Amino acid sequence: MENGDGIDDEIIQSLPSGVAMSWGIVKTSRRGPKGELSIKKIVDAAIAIADKDGLAAVSMHRVAQSLGFTTMSLYRYITSKEDLLVLMQDAVCDIPIPPEVADKPWRQEMTEYVWATVEVFRKHPWFGDIPITSVPITPGNLQVIDWMLRIMRDFPLNDFEKMSFLLLVSSYSRACGLLARDMDKSIRGGASPEAFSGMNYSAALKQLVKPDRFPHLHPILMAGAYTDEADSPIGNDLDFGLERILDGIEQYVQLKRVGQG
């Protein structure tokens, strides 16, 4: 049966409750303190705790304390911690999507997409600690996916090819995001960028890494490329890797255009 919004209630019931709440299609209890609590306030408070102390610090009790309410007051709005995590994840994915700009190069757009998503991991270090359990199905996540698909709207690709490129680029974003997050955490903890790169251990590694055991790594280590002792002719590793991914996409798209011409 459809409700007034044209949504089939029976189909919607198949969604996890946290996902349904992210879409605003689950009515919350009205028994709570009128006008003083809301799903957004609870989620925002939980995000603030996670940003400061990590995901493990988030509990319904601590979130309630931070807001000045009892734990039971929160359960009238969000029924479980699992649902709260879903809502937190979706909320931080609700990032500004750049407007369409005529003739903007698609490579530039994809680069902006990657570094915008990497920034989510840096701003909210706990984000990468939430396990992936399905394809994205909450609106914040899907808006970011829609952005990437918009970039590929004129590519001569079928839907499955576009989704595969989405997975490729998003996986690179996630890898870079986790790396950047861990580097930020290390530096905040007092480590130097040189320590993170391994430069501080270069002399020791050169004593330990022998050519008979590590025949391919040894010359790279001795040349200073492994621990960033030597100046890199390719610039930033992550930028270089992304450019090579985009090269591959560009070549594939060109081949498809030739094949369809």
Automatic annotation (TrEMBL):
<protein>
    <submittedName>
        <fullName>TetR family transcriptional regulator</fullName>
    </submittedName>
</protein>
<dbReference type="InterPro" id="IPR001647">
    <property type="entry name" value="HTH_TetR"/>
</dbReference>
<keyword id="KW-0805">Transcription regulation</keyword>
<dbReference type="InterPro" id="IPR004111">
    <property type="entry name" value="Repressor_TetR_C"/>
</dbReference>
<dbReference type="InterPro" id="IPR009057">
    <property type="entry name" value="Homeodomain-like_sf"/>
</dbReference>
<dbReference type="Pfam" id="PF02909">
    <property type="entry name" value="TetR_C_1"/>
</dbReference>
<feature type="DNA-binding region" description="H-T-H motif">
    <location>
        <begin position="59"/>
        <end position="78"/>
    </location>
</feature>
<dbReference type="Pfam" id="PF00440">
    <property type="entry name" value="TetR_N"/>
</dbReference>
<dbReference type="GO" id="GO:0003700">
    <property type="term" value="F:DNA-binding transcription factor activity"/>
</dbReference>
<dbReference type="InterPro" id="IPR036271">
    <property type="entry name" value="Tet_transcr_reg_TetR-rel_C_sf"/>
</dbReference>
<keyword id="KW-0804">Transcription</keyword>
<feature type="domain" description="HTH tetR-type">
    <location>
        <begin position="36"/>
        <end position="96"/>
    </location>
</feature>
<dbReference type="GO" id="GO:0045892">
    <property type="term" value="P:negative regulation of DNA-templated transcription"/>
</dbReference>
<keyword id="KW-0238">DNA-binding</keyword>
<dbReference type="GO" id="GO:0000976">
    <property type="term" value="F:transcription cis-regulatory region binding"/>
</dbReference>
<dbReference type="InterPro" id="IPR050109">
    <property type="entry name" value="HTH-type_TetR-like_transc_reg"/>
</dbReference>
